[in-house]
Design goal:
Blueprint: E1 7-15, E2 18-21, E3 24-28, H1 34-45, H2 57-71, E4 83-89, H3 94-105, H4 114-117, H5 124-133, E5 139-143, H6 149-161, E6 167-176, E7 179-188, E8 193-194, H7 197-205
Parallel strand pairs: 4-5, 4-6
Antiparallel strand pairs: 1-2, 1-7, 1-8, 2-3, 6-7
Helix pairs in contact: 1-2, 2-5
Length: 207
């Protein structure tokens, strides 16, 4: 599949207590903190994944965005799909890293939690998404100072053109000190939006 033929099949944005899917507001919360907002959104939208409540905030954010998008987009749920994952952010897993550091820095109260430590890598969110949606293709998580549409565009094109994936779920999933944003989109042969750097930036900036 040539890059010129690729489309953006679907996209989703979670920011400021709002969830916008394909430019339509599908959820708006009144909660004052992220944990309360994401928990209520999970329940109200009807997501089903019991392990969700054990995740760190970054994983909850990325997982819910991907789950809504894929759950409303892919055909034949419950079957393996050749969808690659290419995510990025600015803070990596810093929010969880701080919690882990806090648990080990006091030598007199040394109690590192395995439940926290397991999320001290940002790519763990990719694993959670892959398990839920049976994705066994390539996945990568990159750290940039800002949303890098150029890199995501080139990487997605390369994966599809070389036959490593039939579709690519790309995006920016960032969480640090209650400052959060998820923008995720699916690159495919189907869709109405052209897969170009300009369109990616346009969708990202529409919040």
């Amino acid at each position: 599949m040539k890059a010129a033929q690729l489309k953006i099949k679907s996209h989703i944005h979670i920011v400021h207590n709002r969830i916008i899917w394909n430019n339509e507001l599908i959820y708006s919360g009144r909660e004052t903190d992220f944990p309360s907002f994401i928990k209520k959104a999970y329940k109200d939208i009807g997501t089903d994944y019991p392990k969700f409540f054990k995740m760190d905030n970054l994983s909850k954010l990325g997982f819910l965005a991907a789950d809504i998008l894929l759950g409303n987009t892919i055909r034949e749920p419950g079957r393996e799909h050749n969808i690659a994952l290419v995510f990025s952010n600015n803070a990596a897993s810093l929010d969880t890293d701080r919690k882990h550091q806090k648990s080990i820095q006091d030598k007199e109260n040394f109690f590192p939690s395995p439940a926290v430590f397991v999320y001290t890598l940002p790519n763990i969110v990719l694993g959670e998404i892959s398990i839920k949606h049976m994705l066994y293709s390539e996945n990568s998580f990159f750290i940039f100072s800002h949303f890098n549409a150029d890199y995501l565009y080139d990487y997605a094109n390369s994966l599809i053109e070389t036959g490593k994936a039939t579709e690519v779920l790309c995006g920016w999933v960032d969480y640090d000190h209650e400052d959060y944003e998820a923008f995720v989109y699916l690159v495919s042969a189907e869709g109405t939006t052209e897969h170009t750097k300009e369109e990616i930036l346009k969708l990202y900036r529409t919040k």
